[in-house]
Amino acid sequence: MKNSIYAHQYPTQTASGPSQLLKNLLLPFFSSNSPQIGQQLQVDMHAHWLPGVDDGAQSDREGLEMIRGLAALGYRKLIATPHIKTQYENTPKMLKEFFDRFMKVVRKAGIDMEFGLAAEYMLDEGFEAHLKSGPLLTLKENYVLVELSHHNIQILPALQKTLFQIQLAGYKPVMAHPERYGYYFENFKTIEGLKDAGCLFQLNAMSLAGYEGKEVTKRARKLLDQEWYEFVGTDLHTPRQLNYFNKLALSQKFQNRDL
Ligand SMILES: [Fe+2]
């Protein structure tokens, strides 16, 4: 439903019901039979391994370590999603230059994978200008990764207006890690409202692994039970976080491999 703020038909990806609920409760768990998370998903569509542009990798060495770690998890394609928000002066043009330079470093290091460049847009006071000046850096075609501020809480009508503008401009918003937005979970209707407003949802794999605390894990499982996530991303910021992905297995199918 391109360009519509209403998507009443939520995607159903796999069987639901008691067996799916049980799987979601039991997973993530380690099983020698389960493929690694990268083999399952094929494409990581949210990560901060592009060096020197945000709070992710701070050097080529760190960026390479993160890429090698993701390759070891079985991913075949990695999409960098540096932050674009008021705190950083990132623009698509400048990010492309940083990306092209780093790709030469990656190839020189003998790493043979597919790479892409998108961005993670904060829906803050500066976003409208990015939307107007466009084009936005997208995951593929018109899919744009967006996030909400933990400090600058917006009420649902304001968010819906922004999401409407995004879709009016021809983009499909993919909401990064909705399970992390505690404030919006206090009234679950807000999360429903984001889905109603046409957002696709992206789960942070680390949320399932407990990196953000028990409450976030609980919220992630609730959204998994609703089958409201279309994508899973690592949101990797440092090589240290790679340890969180070894024991993860996912019981649903997601749309990552289409990116
Ligand atoms: Fe991120």
Mean pLDDT: 88
Unreliable sequence segments? 1-16
User: What ligands can be seen in this structure?
Assistant: fe (ii) ion
Q: Helix coverage percent of residues?
A: 25-40%
CATH class term: Alpha Beta
* Series of H and E elements: HHEHEEHEEHEHEHHEHHE
User: Which structural category fits the helices and strands?
Assistant: alpha/beta
What is the 3D shape? globular
Topology:
Elements: H1 18-26, H2 37-41, E1 43-44, H3 60-72, E2 77-80, E3 83-84, H4 92-108, E4 114-117, E5 120-122, H5 127-133, E6 143-147, H6 156-168, E7 172-176, H7 182-186, H8 188-196, E8 200-204, H9 205-208, H10 214-226, E9 229-233
Parallel strand pairs: 1-2, 2-4, 3-5, 5-6, 6-7, 7-8, 8-9
Can you describe this structure in just a few lines?
This protein has 259 residues and is α/β, with parallel strands linked by helices.
Describe this structure in words.
- With 259 residues, the protein is α/β, with parallel strands linked by helices.
- It has one domain (18-250): Alpha-Beta Barrel (TIM Barrel), CATH 3.20.20.
- 37% of the residues lie in helices and 14% in strands.
- The protein contains ten helices and nine strands.
- The protein has helices at 18-26, 37-41, 60-72, 92-108, 127-133, 156-168, 182-186, 188-196, 205-208, 214-226, and strands at residues 43-44, 77-80, 83-84, 114-117, 120-122, 143-147, 172-176, 200-204, 229-233.
- The strands form two sheets. It has a six-stranded parallel β-sheet.
- Helix 6 (156-168) links the parallel strand 6 (143-147) and strand 7 (172-176).
- 41% of the residues are buried.
- Residues 1-16 have low confidence and may be disordered.
- It binds fe (ii) ion (FE2).
- Fe (ii) ion binds at residues 46, 48, 120, 176, 235.
